[in-house]
Specification:
- By secondary structure, the protein is α+β, with helices and mostly antiparallel strands.
- The protein folds into three domains: 206 residues, Tetratricopeptide repeat domain (Serine Threonine Protein Phosphatase 5, Tetratricopeptide repeat); 132 residues, Rossmann fold (3-Layer(aba) Sandwich); 147 residues, Hnrnp arginine n-methyltransferase1.
- 47% of the residues lie in helices and 19% in strands.
- It contains 22 helices and 17 strands.
- The strands form four sheets. Strands 6, 9, 10, 11, 13, 14 and 15 form a seven-stranded antiparallel sheet that branches. The chain has a five-stranded parallel sheet with strand order 3-2-1-4-5, with helices on both faces.
- Helix 5 packs antiparallel against helix 6 and helix 12 runs antiparallel to helix 13.
Length: 546
């Protein structure tokens, strides 16, 4: 068997071809070397790597790389390549094993440490990922990607200021690093530094006009700066570049559907909601507590907290007109000396300025009809880690989402909007709120085609994945045309207090939600439908699996 130096010499023509962008020639040279020298581990390894990069069968590429490892199990680069291929295939646990082996064999390999951090980040082991990225940065040469990735880990931990330092440092090393500009913009947006965030998103798009997330984020930054026309222009520019992008189409519909929040009045008249918050606060508040609330709205929950014995309540509301109304309501009810309304995002609050110290009790009102409001989990995580005492209490504590297979003809006709009264009305579909529709079990004609099933569980007291999904097999109990899944939630408020959104009470403002499949499916008793139930940072979804 050749020495490592002799193998390196034999593949030198391959490396030259790769540097010149001639992957086809590089692959041919590799194949020729392997035919003559089947034990040349470097050539076998490169043949697998080049094949995968060129779109060859992933199993075949993996087989070649593993064959190279068998020939020389001590060469760290082979393990790193195996990990990279597994990572690309979404096999994150297996990728972690390979990257760890690479770092053990070559502790000085900063790329392997960076790759290990990426795998750990995907596995939601954020603190371990942070450690791996720091290991990468402790070894030359500087991995600019590792600086950016360290920022991502710090962001996941709610350490926005430190994350921003990382993204800016990555930009200093590589001013053309698109992801770093975008990530810096995301942090600045969370901190409510809108003009600076806008500049970062614009620079990302200047560098890469096909950076879809930057269009959506720039549009949101403009929207938040009261520039709805500018936001629409940005989204349309993005769709001109990427007309099939789902997130941009979702952003367009979200922007079109954004109106004055008319739900505030029915919300304050929701008797069961009010009773649930009041009962939970009566149990959770201790005399003299500092209570922190996200989502002031009318101020009713803040006043409940004060009435329950809180010494001070600090509540934040991003909409100035709603915040002003809450201040008037609070003053009219005699609580102005104990409740402070701050017109900021929770991520913008500073201890010692807006909040005197970390809170004893944290209350949030971020729920919508589909339970999960946009960015809700990350907002709660940031507040819990930065603004609430480690032993602090939280309302609501958790949520369980339930679903049922649904037949609902009259709602299915407008989800999406199509032909109505013999006319093509599909243009109106652009104004329909995206994601899911509201259904009222108490009044909307519908049929349940299955028994109730538990779909998703959320625990707001601990860190959860930012997005997740799993498959459910749902037995059909009734024959019909299944249009989708109707779903609702139980909010576990505090101790034994539970709010149930499947209530038929007329004052239930949340009602229930319905996620419609792209196409309905005829079902009969005994059928079993496989559903992908999941969530991202925007919404809950139920997709029919073929």
């Amino acid at each position: 068997m050749k020495t490592a130096e002799e193998r390196a010499q034999s593949i030198e023509p391959v490396m030259v071809a790769i540097e010149n962008g001639q992957l086809g020639e590089a692959s041919a040279i590799c194949a020729d070397i392997v035919a003559r020298e089947p034990d040349n581990a470097d050539a076998v390894h490169l043949l697998g790597v080049i094949g995968f990069q060129g779109g060859a069968d992933s199993a075949q590429a993996l087989d070649l790389i593993e064959r190279a490892i068998t020939l020389d199990p001590t060469w760290g680069q082979f393990h790193n390549s195996r990990g990279a291929l597994l990572y690309a295939l979404g096999r994150n646990g297996d990728a972690e094993v390979s990257f760890r082996r690479a770092t053990m064999l070559r502790p000085e390999d900063s790329m392997a440490w960076n790759n290990l951090g990426n795998a750990l980040l995907r596995l939601d082991r954020v603190e371990e990922a942070e450690g791996a990225f720091r290991q990468a940065l402790a070894r030359p040469p500087v991995q600019v990607a590792a600086i950016n990735n360290l920022g991502m880990a710090l962001k996941r931990r709610g350490q926005f200021d430190k994350a921003l330092i990382c993204f800016n440092e990555a930009i200093r090393h590589d001013p053309a690093f698109v992801d770093a500009h975008f990530n810096a913009g995301e942090i600045l947006y969370q901190l409510d530094h809108m003009p600076e965030a806008e500049n970062c998103f614009r620079e990302a798009l200047r560098l890469d006009p096909k950076c879809a997330p930057a269009y959506a984020s720039l549009a949101q930054a403009l929207h938040d700066q009261q520039q709805p026309d500018g936001a629409m222009d940005v989204i349309r520019a993005g769709l001109a570049e990427l007309p099939e992008d789902e997130d941009l189409n979702f952003a367009l519909r979200l922007q079109l559907s954004s109106m004055v929040p008319a739900w505030h009045i029915p919300m304050i008249n929701d008797e069961e909601r009010n009773e649930a918050y009041d009962s939970a606060l009566q149990r959770a508040v201790r005399p003299g507590d500092l209570v922190f609330e996200i989502g002031t709205g009318s101020g009713i929950v803040s006043m409940m907290a004060a009435r329950a014995g809180a010494g001070q309540v600090v509540t934040c509301e991003v909409l100035p007109t709603i915040a002003d109304a809450a201040r008037d309501i609070i003053a009219a009810n005699g609580y102005a000396d104990r409740i402070t309304v701050i017109t900021k995002k929770s991520t913008q609050l500073r201890l010692g300025e807006d909040l005197p110290e970390k809170a004893d009790l944290f209350v949030s009102e971020l729920i919508n009809v589909g339970m999960l409001a946009p960015n809700m989990l990350s907002i709660i995580r940031h507040a819990r880690e930065n603004l609430v005492k480690p032993e602090g209490r939280i309302i609501p504590e958790a949520s369980t989402v339930y679903g049922v297979l649904l037949e609902c003809d009259h709602l299915a006709r407008i989800n999406p909007v199509g032909e109505i009264a013999g006319f093509d009305m599909s243009v109106m579909d652009r104004f329909r709120s995206p994601g899911y529709a509201v259904i009222d079990f108490a009044s909307d004609p519908h049929r349940r085609l299955s028994d109730r099933f538990a779909a998703l569980d959320f625990d707001f007291r601990v860190d959860m994945k930012e997005m997740d999904s799993h498959r459910l097999v749902v037995p059909v109990t009734e024959a019909g045309l299944c249009h989708g899944v109707a779903f609702w939630f139980d909010l576990h408020m505090f101790e034994d207090v539970v709010y149930r959104s499947d209530s038929h009470n007329r004052t239930n403002h949340w009602k229930q939600a319905a996620h419609f499949f792209k196409e309905p499916i005829a079902v009969s008793p005994g059928d079993r439908l496989t559903i992908a139930a999941g969530y991202d940072n925007t919404r809950i979804f139920f997709n029919l699996v073929a």
